[in-house]
Design brief:
- With 525 residues, the protein is α/β, with parallel strands linked by helices.
- It contains 16 helices and twelve strands.
- The chain folds into three domains: 56 residues, no CATH class; 300 residues, 3-Layer(aba) Sandwich (Alkaline Phosphatase, subunit A); 77 residues, Arylsulfatase, C-terminal domain.
- The protein has an eight-stranded mixed beta sheet with strand order 4-3-5-1-6-7-2-8, with helices on both faces. It has a four-stranded antiparallel beta sheet with strand order 9-10-11-12, covered by helices on one side.
- The chain is 34% helix and 14% strand.
- The structure holds zinc ion (ZN).
- The site of zinc ion has 5 residues, from loops.
């Protein structure tokens, strides 16, 4: 596999952590703490000796930095205040961006929850990490052989904990790898049954951002303070209308539109009338959905703000690198698509902000960066380390440092072209109307080089698309007829990066071992 080709391990020079030595030091300090708070003369002498020891053994090094990664599910960049949206939606995100670095052009590598998260957590494009789909009985699980950010930080002596809010981030998809604590407690809600073709509904297996935050706060309060930690918190509220904020938190965004509970009542009372009044009027539906959507993002942002406030009160912020992004965006009616799963920019352009020690303050980065760059950047910032093998992303710290100084990046400091794919387009985002399903018989591959974006339709090549994202950010004018050479150039580059010659077979033969295992778990009939 291309990304796993072993190359000589390159280490960043600032800090070279020695976990065993650090653990020994932690043990010494823990022992010291346990002997009591009053220092006797003997204790003071011992303390002086202890403090002198590390200096004798190695050059002084800054303490390792904690890492907090927050992922908002299904959150378009343009809904947040700092990206030109309503400032009332995202005060916590906007404040974080103001005290750190905001990336104006960050790209997801997929618009499907587990696939995109796997790229965030491994630094690998989907064809290299192997988790390709949400639905399906094959290629939905991150192989145990793929190193994750959590596993790497664990090796470096970190405590690791994840608090996720929905089934698509659960253990089933292998996203728990490297986490000692993996909390996916959805309050006993039953998982949706997975059909023979592997199509699932996220259904009830999700929880509110407030509940996820409570669990994360409990863990933070009880953690071992002698050790650095990596905490991942995933919020699902914006994903669909099932999770919605308390009514008073919806009101400021609804602007006279009916609240969700009223819509539900109307649907129950008279489904035909409901469809006639709402669903059949796309403009009305879009307008209403966007209001509810902003309320949901705002609710998750509020909960993230609680988390930051707790870190601040604890004095932990100065030792903590924080990264906030989303896994992908949402159609909300753009390109005639309500949900996600396809690859237009309302789905792939994600928010990304970093803050904390080592992160330039008050910096806006215009350069296009990718989800696969996030894990290498966090490893670099937190521990001065890397994955120890080649990944598809690069650390963005050199780029940030150059831009903060007003300099141009040097060779190798700018991320390369951005890749994304959608290899199964099954049923997504039907809103209320069972007759509306978003099914496309196709496989999509994206290659963005500079401002040109190529969308290869693998099964229907004649539908492939080319857009100039600078001149046409809304992707309305397909340039294939007028710029065929550019289309060919990007297609060749994409093919070179990831040959798409083999069919991806998602079918599951009878008597297959995987099928039997799923059957025994009650996942398939
Ligand atoms: Zn998602």
């Amino acid at each position: 596999m291309k990304a796993m080709t072993r190359k000589p391990v390159k280490r960043f020079s600032t800090v070279n952590l020695l976990p065993r030595e650090r653990r020994r030091r932690h043990a010494r300090f823990a022992a010291m703490r346990d002997t009591g708070t009053i220092l006797t003369a003997r204790g003071a002498a011992a303390l002086a000796l202890l403090l002198s020891l590390p200096a004798c053994l190695e050059a002084p090094s800054p303490p390792p930095r904690n890492v907090v990664l927050i992922t908002f599910d299904t959150t378009r960049a343009d809904v947040l205040g700092v990206y030109g949206g309503d400032a009332a939606v995202s005060p916590a995100f906007d404040a974080l961006a103001a005290r750190g670095t905001l990336f104006l052009q960050a790209q997801a590598q997929a618009a499907v929850t587990p696939v995109a998260h796997a790229s965030i957590l491994t630094g690998l494009n989907p064809y290299n990490h192997g988790l390709r789909t949400l639905h399906g009985n094959r290629l939905y699980h991150l192989p145990g052989t793929i190193p994750t950010l959590a596993a790497r930080l664990q090796d470096l002596g970190y405590d690791t904990a994840a608090f996720v809010s929905a089934f698509p981030c659960s253990r089933r998809f292998g996203l728990d790898q490297g986490f000692e604590v993996f909390d996916a407690d959805f309050g006993g809600a039953p998982e949706a049954r997975i059909g023979p073709a592997g199509n699932i509904s996220t259904g009830l297996a999700q929880r509110d951002a407030a509940a996820t935050t409570e669990s994360a706060l409990r863990w933070l309060a009880g953690r071992d303070r002698e050790r650095p930690y990596f905490l991942w918190v995933h919020y699902f509220d914006p994903h669909d209308p099932l999770l919605r904020p308390p009514v008073p938190r919806q009101e400021p965004f609804m602007d006279g539109f009916p609240r969700f509970s009223e819509m539900e009542e109307a649907l129950t009372r008279d489904p035909e009338r409901f469809v006639a009044d709402y669903v059949k009027d796309p403009d009305l539906m879009r307008s209403w959905l966007r209001r509810l959507y902003r309320a949901e993002v705002s609710w998750a942002d509020t909960q993230m703000g609680r988390l930051f406030a707790a870190l601040d009160a604890d004095g932990g912020l100065e030792h903590t690198v924080i990264a906030v992004t989303s896994d992908h965006g949402e159609g909300l009616g753009d390109h005639d698509w309500w949900g996600h799963g396809i690859l237009y920019q309302e789905q792939l352009h994600v928010p990304l902000a970093l803050a904390g020690p080592g992160v330039p303050r008050d910096l806006l980065v215009q350069d296009r960066v990718r989800h696969v760059d996030l894990a290498p950047t966090l490893l670099h910032l937190a521990a001065g380390s890397d994955f120890g093998h080649k990944v598809d992303g690069i650390s963005l710290l050199p780029l940030m440092t150059r831009r903060a100084a007003g300099d141009e990046p040097r060779a190798g400091e700018l991320p390369g072209p951005a890749y994304a794919d959608a290899v199964t387009l099954m049923r997504y985002g039907a809103v209320f109307d069972p007759g509306v399903s978003e099914v496309r018989d196709d496989q999509l591959y994206v290659w963005i080089d500079s401002n040109l974006k190529w969308i290869r339709h693998r099964l229907h090549a004649d539908r492939s698309e080319l857009y100039d994202l600078e001149a046409d950010p809304g992707e309305q004018v397909n340039l294939v007829p007028v710029r065929p050479r550019d289309a060919g150039r990007l297609d060749r580059a994409l093919e070179e990066e990831h040959p798409m010659t083999a069919e991806i077979d998602f079918s599951l033969p009878e008597d297959d071992e995987v099928r039997q295992r799923l059957k025994s778990l009650g996942y398939v009939d």
